[in-house]
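Protein entry
_____________
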Amino acid sequence: MNTTQMNAQQTIADNVLKYTHLLIEALKDNYRQYAIRGHQRAIENFNSTYDTTDSVQSHYHQEKIDELKNGILPIDYVIETGKKYHKVIMIDGGSSRSVHCFIDKRTGSVLKSASWKAPAKGERYNLLIIKERENVLANCDWSGGYLYRR
């Protein structure tokens, strides 16, 4: 393999990793929006049920909304890189870990996880294809529903 080919492969690998980080940021943002909506609904339901806006419960939910807006999330995503794949792992509550998806380091293919160690068959998205990347970043959800085939 010549230097040009090696440079091209390294550029692809670098781009896949960069887009994997963008996916993680989109997943975190999706969770943030989801959690804020949940806390807002809880405040609205409490206020409509008890006809009050001054309660410990309302203050709790407002504090959680403020934390979420300031970037404090109860979940996180990390990347563990193996020989062939970047494994995107969701950490929930500090100790619970699950594989969110696998991303092929050479091709940019996003794959649903079949187990902790292996992806399911069939590419769901490709991060190197601009239209697919834009679609996945706009429509991904923190729980992985976008990875199921329709």
Observations:
- The chain has a mean pLDDT of 93.
- Residues 3-147 form one domain.
